[in-house]
Amino acid sequence: MAKIVVMPQLGLTVTKGKIGAWLKGEGDMVRAGEELAVVESAGATNTIQARDDEAGYLLKILVSDGEV
After folding, report:
1. How far apart are CA 28 and CA 12, in angstroms?
2. Is the pTM of this model over 0.85?
3. How confident is the model over 12-21, as a mean pLDDT?
4. From residue 51, how far is each of 5, 7, 15, 56, 63 by CA, in Å?
5. How far apart are CA 35 and CA 24, in angstroms?
6. Is the pLDDT of residue 21 over 80?
7. What residues have CB less than 8 Å from 1, skipping those under 6 apart?
């Protein structure tokens, strides 16, 4: 069953973030805890990790590098 990975809340006042880079590509296997992408927000850069229920394969990237 496919699941959509949603960017987690990065702070109380953060309302949007830009994908700095995807660390996994389409078709790559993803394990729980692995880093998926780098997200840039006002004044901070964070790495997004796969949650326990997000293990599997990255089927499709819907938001490209540099997009908000």
Report:
1. 32
2. no
3. 87
4. 9, 11, 21, 11, 19
5. 8
6. yes
7. none
35-56 core/surface letters (b: 16 or more CB in 10 A; e: else)? ebbbbbbeeeebebebeeebee
Q: How many CB atoms lie within 10 A of CB 7?
A: 16
Residue 1: how many CB atoms within 10 A of its CB?
3
Q: Residue 17 pLDDT more than 90?
A: no
Q: In whole angstroms, what is the distance from residue 40 CA to residue 20 CA?
A: 6
Write the CB contacts of 5 (distance below 8 Å, at least 6 apart in sequence): 36, 48, 50, 54
Q: Rounded CA gap, 42 and 29, in Å?
A: 30
What are the Cα distances from residue 35, in Å, to 17, 21, 23, 48, 53?
A: 16, 11, 7, 6, 14
Strands 44-49 and 35-41: antiparallel
